[in-house]
């Protein structure tokens, strides 16, 4: 369900719609998502782990568009949230609060209260201080807070340092060495109910080993807890499964499931996951048009109308996204190496470097694998209105977020 070339005229298509048509109709830059690709990758998770009692909690931060959340909610998905705003979005989309887990190191009193009142499945607690606050808030509201400790299993996810979260020095989770003591403390605090254990070691992980290493450390703790009379209802192994951006060979979910099976023989409870990128990453692309070509002695620049404010990943993580010319109307030579840059006044506003793309001004480009951490990380930097998001389903296209206007830019400011 990814983009493909039409056999007749070689134009890039998504489902049954030509990307040219979408650009003409909705303008550029513009995010485009495939509904089938989204639902297929969610289903792939469900299928791979069907022999477990599994809840797949989609990590909302990857892409929080209401329509996408609604599609997933309708499939019975759970959600991993990290803010009151994400809770609001999931509830607006019809998500079941009893399938929501709440992660994040800085949950505020307000956010905790909102989640308690909504009746979420579990708070993934990231510090002793948060445990204390949760107990206080739950006591005040005369409610019970269901909790997991997010344990840092101290494994190297072998990914970009900005998206590795399971190292000893990480701000996330509690060290495995202090987890038992914290669980004992949680047992004594009023209005808390221990329901699980959680970990998340990083993102865009393409091999199985770090996941299995983390799982084994978590299971060790689960057994120690059971021995102390603290049984758990669920184990949450987080998200982080990578996708193919360039030439990565992402791990197979069924291999993951097969490797987990014998490890979970002893455990009766539910298995939770928090995938974001794997669900939505390859379901989206960014359409952008070439404004200018510019030659300087050292570089051939292709200046496009999308910038780092629309897609931050290449500037922030030197992330690679494939760029494809949408219509290929004439055979072109492809030996020229270009850098694709955006309009933003920052040298780091680069969307791709060293690409062999023979483009002209006016050409339409598709930047692939932008469904995750694309729109959700975008900003209005340089007073650039947020760009639209379009959902494709078969031959149907729906604007699921409209393009902002200049008026939108100033609507919350005092004149
Ligand atoms: N659970 C927790 C607690 C997380 O912090 C994250 C992502 C996920 C689940 C989902 O991870 P995923 O399955 O998507 O890898 N902006 C970066 C990625 C940051 C990930 C932050 N946490 C990027 O564009 O690569």
UniProtKB/TrEMBL annotation:
Active site (UniProt): 345
Cofactor(s) needed for function: pyridoxal 5'-phosphate
Signal peptide range in chain numbering: none
Boundaries of every Orn/DAP/Arg decarboxylase 2 N-terminal domain copy: 40-280
An example molecular function term from Gene Ontology annotations: diaminopimelate decarboxylase activity
Record-annotated Orn/DAP/Arg decarboxylase 2 C-terminal domain positions: 30-371
A single GO BP: lysine biosynthetic process via diaminopimelate
Chain sites annotated for binding pyridoxal 5'-phosphate: 240, 274-277, 373
Family affiliation: Belongs to the Orn/Lys/Arg decarboxylase class-II family. LysA subfamily.
Function statement: Specifically catalyzes the decarboxylation of meso-diaminopimelate (meso-DAP) to L-lysine.
Protein name (Swiss-Prot/TrEMBL): Diaminopimelate decarboxylase
Protein source organism: Ferrovum myxofaciens
Encoding gene (name): lysA
């Amino acid at each position: 369900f990814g983009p493909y070339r039409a056999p007749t005229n070689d134009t890039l298509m998504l489902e049954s719609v030509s990307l040219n048509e979408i650009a003409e109709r909705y303008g550029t830059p513009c995010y485009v998502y495939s509904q089938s690709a989204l639902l297929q990758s969610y289903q792939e998770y469900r299928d791979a782990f069907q022999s477990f009692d599994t809840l797949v909690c989609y990590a909302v931060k990857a892409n929080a568009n209401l329509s996408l959340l609604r599609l997933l909610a309708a499939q019975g998905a759970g959600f991993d949230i990290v803010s009151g705003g994400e809770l609001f979005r999931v509830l607006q989309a019809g998500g079941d609060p009893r399938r929501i887990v709440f992660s994040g190191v800085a949950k505020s009193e307000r956010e905790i209260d909102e989640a308690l009142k909504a009746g979420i499945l579990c708070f993934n607690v990231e510090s002793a201080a948060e445990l204390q606050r949760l107990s206080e808030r739950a006591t005040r509201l005369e409610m019970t807070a269901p909790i997991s400790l997010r344990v840092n299993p101290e494994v190297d996810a072998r990914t970009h340092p900005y998206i590795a979260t399971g190292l000893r020095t990480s701000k996330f989770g509690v060290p495995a060495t202090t987890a038992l003591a914290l669980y004992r403390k949680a047992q004594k605090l009023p209005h808390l109910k221990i329901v699980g254990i959680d970990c998340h070691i990083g993102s865009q992980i393409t091999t199985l080993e770090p996941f299995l290493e983390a799982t084994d450390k978590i299971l060790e703790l689960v057994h120690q807890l059971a021995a102390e009379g603290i049984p758990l209802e669920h184990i949450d192994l987080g998200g982080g499964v990578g996708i193919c951006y360039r030439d990565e060979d992402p791990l197979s979910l069924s291999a993951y499931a097969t490797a987990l099976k014998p490890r979970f023989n002893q455990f009766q409870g539910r298995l939770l996951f928090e995938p974001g990128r794997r669900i939505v990453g390859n379901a989206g692309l960014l359409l952008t048009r070439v404004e200018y070509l510019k030659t300087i002695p050292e570089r051939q620049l292709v200046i496009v109308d999308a910038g780092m404010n629309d897609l931050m990943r290449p500037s922030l993580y030197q992330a690679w996204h494939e760029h494809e010319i949408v219509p290929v109307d004439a055979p072109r030579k492809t030996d020229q190496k270009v850098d694709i840059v955006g309009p933003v006044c920052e040298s780091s506003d680069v969307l791709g470097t060293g690409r062999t793309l023979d483009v002209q001004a006016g050409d339409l480009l598709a930047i692939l694998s932008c469904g995750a951490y694309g729109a959700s990380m975008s900003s209005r930097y340089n007073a650039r209105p947020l760009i639209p998001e379009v959902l494709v389903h078969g031959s149907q296209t729906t604007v699921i977020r409209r393009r902002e206007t200049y008026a939108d830019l100033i609507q919350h400011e005092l004149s």
